[in-house]
Amino acid sequence: MRYLIICILCALCGACNQSTTDMKELYVKKISLKDVSVEAVPALLDAEGIAFVPIETVNWKEYPYRPETFFRIAHTGDAIVLHYKVREASVRAVAATDNGPVWEDACVEFFSSPTDDGIYYNMECNCTGTLLVGTGSSRNGREPAPQTVLDNVQRWASLGRVSFEERIGECTWEVVLIIPAATYFKHQVKSLSGKTMRANFYKCGDKLQTPHFLSWNPIAVEAPDFHRPEFFGTLRFE
After folding, report:
1. Residues linked to residue 178 through DSSP beta bridges, in sequence order
2. 130: pLDDT confidence band, cut at 50, 70 and 90?
3. Domain containing 131: what range?
4. Is residue 15 included in any domain, yes or no?
5. What average pLDDT does the segment 147-151 reach?
6. Helix (H) or strand (E) holding 234
7. Mean pLDDT, range 127-132, rounded to an integer
8. In whole angstroms, what is the distance from residue 85 CA to residue 102 CA?
9. What per-residue confidence (pLDDT) applies to 22?
10. pLDDT: is 7 or 19 the higher one?
11. DSSP classification of residue 188
């Protein structure tokens, strides 16, 4: 009888089923960045045949807008390489300094857990490459990365690195991030090679003319909340 009750409850709980059976996986290819500048990363990823993956899940019907958003990911053994490409109806880059409210701007995000200890990192970047990195086990009480850690993340932004107020009108933009393993500053990640991580990728813009909250892996909660590691997918590093 106890087993039957558990099965019935699990069948009724979409979030439980989704978090265990429907999570996506990505294979992360290893590449070399020797003598490659950060602005040349898109061409290198093209040459390596690394495909873009859409961030397209609308989790909350109150926010139906779905800007075209793609990412691709690779690694070098000691760094994660991310390339985002976005087309949306307006852009904004008011946050001018690191660890500011970049999520209010045209923003892309990478949340990941380097181990299974319950700690995850939020790495959030607006369209001019301004970066926010924090860590913790939940939304509350997160510890921001020191500026010395942030300074080691190489960045390229197609719109340049100068902040600006919202620009209305369709715009396409790209950012590249080269994220050293040391950015996981509360952990000792010596090598990414052969590693498995849980992660999710997001697109948001809380203060754009059309707010939106997209994810790579679906998030089965009632209100917008990216701080949900139970809905992370899997990254398998070569």
Report:
1. 81, 154
2. very high
3. 25-237
4. no
5. 98
6. strand 233-237
7. 98
8. 17
9. 77
10. 19
11. -
Distance CA(181)–CA(192), nearest Å, equals 7
Helix (H, G, I), strand (E, B) or coil at 193: coil
**In Å, how far from its chain's centre is CA 195?**
18
CATH number at residue 123: 2.60.40.1190
The string of pLDDT tens digits covering residues 28-77 is: 999 999 999 999 999 999 999 999 999 999 999 999 999 999 999 999 99
pTM of the shown model: 0.91
Gap between the Cα atoms of 166 and 90, Å rounded: 7
Decide: 111 and 182 in contact? Cβ < 8 Å.
Answer: no
| Percent of the chain whose predicted confidence (pLDDT) is above 70 | 91
Residue 91 lies in a domain: yes
State how far the Cα of 123 lies from the Cα of 84, in Å rounded to an integer. Answer: 13
- Residue pair 154/178 in contact (Cβ under 8 Å)? The answer is yes
Residues 6+ apart with CB under 8 A from 170: 87, 88, 89
Residues in the chain: 238
What would the pLDDT profile of 183-232 be if each residue is shown by its tens digit?
999 999 999 999 999 999 999 999 999 999 999 999 999 999 999 999 99
Instruction: Please say whether the beta carbons of 214 and 224 come within 8 A.
Output: no
The total number of structural domains that make up the chain: 1
Integer CA distances (angstroms), 128 to 91, 109, 190, in order: 10, 13, 29
d(CA 188, CA 175): 27
> Do the domain assignments include residue 90?
yes
Judge contact between 87 and 171, C-beta under 8 A.
yes
Cα 34 versus chain centre, distance: 25
